[in-house]
Amino acid sequence: MIRFDSVTKTYPKQNHPALRDVSLEIEKGEFVFLVGSSGSGKSTFLRLILREERTDTGAVHVLGKDLARLSNWKVPHMRRQLGTVFQDFRLLPNKTVAENVAFALEVIGKPRGTIRKTVPEVLDLVGLAGKEDRMPGELSGGEQQRVAIARAFVNRPMLLIADEPTGNLDPQTSVGIMRLLDRINRTGTTVVMATHDQNIVDQMRKRVIELEKGRLVRDQSRGVYGYQH
Amino acid sequence: MRLQFVLSEIGVGLRRNLTMTFAVIISVALSLALTGGALLANKQVNAMKGYWYDKVQVTIYMCNKADASTTPSCDKGAVTDDQKKSILADLKKLPVVERVYYESAEQAYKRYQEQFKGNPLASTVTPDQMQENYRVKLKDPTKFEIVASAFAGRPGIQTVEDQRKVLQNLFDLLNGMTRVAYVVLAFMLTVAMLLIVNTVRVSAFSRRRETGIMRLVGASSFYIQMPFIAEAAFAGLVGAALACAMLLGGRYFLIDKGLRLQEKIPLVSFIGWDAVVTVLPLVLLIGVLMPALAAFIALRRYLKV
């Protein structure tokens, strides 16, 4: 599903690489936590998977494709097979819940009939049935994140990337979001989630990958958040 | 791709940037009106030059029947074949003459009708009022006097006319104005382009949230860029339509009504509506393509896809 082969990435005008010599493999259907302090390279790791950035040396394979060899115009097609969720939700404030989810399908040219059918389905799945016509501003943080997850999942992606999805949420709400991500994982979707939330990692007992100053320092199945940082 | 969705996005974008959109429309309209005006001025000059102007410098009009009473050198009536032959032979002997064209009265009539098509003058002239003539091209255009002194007053010749004398100053003026118009319009087009680039930049910035999400969910770069380009093209089209209206209105008020130039200067063949109409598609095309191109260039810099 995802393979990093000795990946090194240095941003322009930076002395220290954001990632150095990272190699790992994530299999289909896995649930993986990506932990590490700020600046450890988590975001770079995710940006490389999304091909927002490219490696200096080493190769990143996602869904069986070498991203270095993927031409620019094919990148959108690759991204359609990924779902992404962020800490700040990234919803459109002037569109309703249903429109926000439908937007993801509209911009990739899905026919209207498909949109009308799938949007309620996926909103039901994330537990937002009946809130289709609400505006994001009227929803709680947890509900907004559910909209974002619905949008990420509406295309039934093979891989879901979540960058601190519970970062803005209280612990109670976070548990609900994690249950949802776990459910999505059980449908066969691979989930890679960067997080700082120790409780969640310790409770879920999933694979944990830890980065420190750009290096892979721990890769543990059924791991815990680990050492205090 | 869903048209309705795209159109609604364009509408939202244009309304959000209303003042900038107006600025784009007006600057495009003015620069295109100037472009069209310069093109039409050019056509006007060509229309006034008629068929012979750029080809010859001197015209020798020979007598026809009607000239007998008015011109002393024509007192024997219309020019004879012998006279024509000797005039031609003498013309060819002059070293300053490069080439001589002969135009019969019939041909002269046809060209006249063509040049003054739609002008009331055309219908008042009959073929037998026209004169046979020799159109003379000189090796040195300033040497008109040589030809004039050699042929003026000769039996069978009504007048020797320096073609350039009458209209050259006017054409110099028109051409000069056209050149000034080109310079001004180059500046105006630059201003319009810069305005469009800036408008697209602001537009892309104010919509970075949408475009960011579009990128995330895998919209193609064409799909992301298209609304911006379509917005610019639409604003350009509105500007171009205004420019067309200005051109049509300009011809109407200068030539037909308002200044009534056609009425005041009936001797000049003014460009017709057909000339104005042929310029309009070009104006519209430039009006759509130029802003679209400017938007495309701006997006390469300001919109990450």
UniProtKB/TrEMBL annotation, chain A:
The record's keywords, sorted A to Z, are:
ATP-binding, Cell cycle, Cell division, Cell membrane, Membrane, Nucleotide-binding
Function summary: Part of the ABC transporter FtsEX involved in cellular division.
Q: Which GO terms describe its biological process?
A: cell division
Give membrane topology per the record.
Peripheral membrane protein
What subcellular locations does the record give?
Answer: Cell membrane
Q: Does the entry feature the keyword Membrane, yes or no?
A: yes
Pfam families xrefs: ABC_tran
Check the record and name the Gene3D superfamilies matching this protein: P-loop containing nucleotide triphosphate hydrolases (3.40.50.300)
Subunit-structure text: Homodimer. Forms a membrane-associated complex with FtsX.
Sequence similarity: Belongs to the ABC transporter superfamily.
Please tell me whether the keyword Protease is annotated for this protein.
Answer: no
How is this protein named in the record? Cell division ATP-binding protein FtsE
Supply the InterPro entries for this chain: AAA+_ATPase, ABC_transporter-like_ATP-bd, ABC_transporter-like_CS, ABC_transpr_LolD-like, Cell_div_FtsE, P-loop_NTPase
Gene Ontology MF, one = ATP binding
| Domain of life the protein comes from | Bacteria
Sequence ranges assigned to domain ABC transporter in this UniProt record: 2-228
Q: Which organism is it from?
A: Actinacidiphila acididurans
UniProtKB/TrEMBL annotation, chain B:
Which Pfam family, any one, appears in the UniProt record?
FtsX
The FtsX extracellular domain covers which part of the protein?
56-160
Q: How does it sit in the membrane?
A: Multi-pass membrane protein
Transmembrane keyword on record: yes
Record-annotated ABC3 transporter permease C-terminal domain positions: 183-301
Identify the keywords attached in UniProt to this record, alphabetized.
Cell cycle, Cell division, Cell membrane, Membrane, Transmembrane, Transmembrane helix
What name does this protein carry? Cell division protein FtsX
Q: What is the lineage of its organism?
A: Bacteria, Bacillati, Actinomycetota, Actinomycetes, Kitasatosporales
